[in-house]
Amino acid sequence: DLGTALLQTTLLAAGAAILATVLAFPFAWLAVRFSGPLARTVEGANFITSAMPGIVTALALVTVAIRFAPALYQTTALVLCAYLLMFLPRALVNLRSGLAQIPPALEEASLSLGRSPAHTFFHVTLRLTAPAAAAGMCLVFVAVATELTATLLLAPTGTRTLAMRFWSLSSELDYAAAAPYATVLVLLSIPVTVLLFRQSTKVAAA
């Protein structure tokens, strides 16, 4: 059961981290490259749901799914949607910071040398924002791995994440059985924490 919980937690957290980082990139690009009211509004809209309690977001998705898309209710897609609404700003903040440190002149120089916009994007912009993207993914990964409320309400039947199992066993006062799940959660966060520490050290040294 511990192995199953670890596997499901890792898959959900990794999937949400990748999706959040990919979807946050256009918002970060818009916020950095354009400074008008529309760009600020679009960027700020992402922080609304993250400021709400997880149960509010989860109940809203339950209502929408039951009324308009019953097939999505209690599916992994709906759980990932909740994670994106709640934790996408964590990736957005990091990506925005990374993009802001890239001088537009580098992209212009690549284009002036005859490189296509796609080549410039993948070999200049993405390469330089990769550390920031990795940091954002790490933050989303840790947040999803420890998230409980939305997962309890939205997860498909049979889903058993580490946080769910820890909560279930600790609520039954079976602390001895709950301890391994808490321990694995801590161990799971160590590689992510180390990566974040190394990234922050590099930024400070620069």
Descriptive account of the structure:
The radius of gyration is 19 Å and the shape is globular. It has nine helices and no strands. The chain is mainly alpha-helical and about 210 residues long. It has helices spanning about 1-35, 35-50, 55-70, 75-100, 105-110, 115-145, 150-155, 160-170, 175-205. The termini are far apart. It is about 85% helix and about 0% strand.
Short description, anyone?
The chain has 206 residues and is mainly α. It contains nine helices and no strands.
- Helix tally equals 9
Main sheet: strands, sense, barrel? none
The share of residues in extended strands comes to under 5%
Distance between the first and last residues' Cα: 45 Å
The rounded Rg comes to 19 Å
Percent of residues in helices: over 70%
Question: So what's the oligomer here?
Answer: single chain
Tertiary shape: globular
Q: Strand-and-helix sequence, N→C?
A: HHHHHHHHH
How many strands?
Answer: 0
Mean pLDDT: 86
Helical/strand content category: mainly alpha
pLDDT < 50 stretches: none
What's the topology here?
Elements: H1 2-33, H2 37-50, H3 54-68, H4 76-100, H5 104-112, H6 117-146, H7 149-154, H8 162-171, H9 175-205
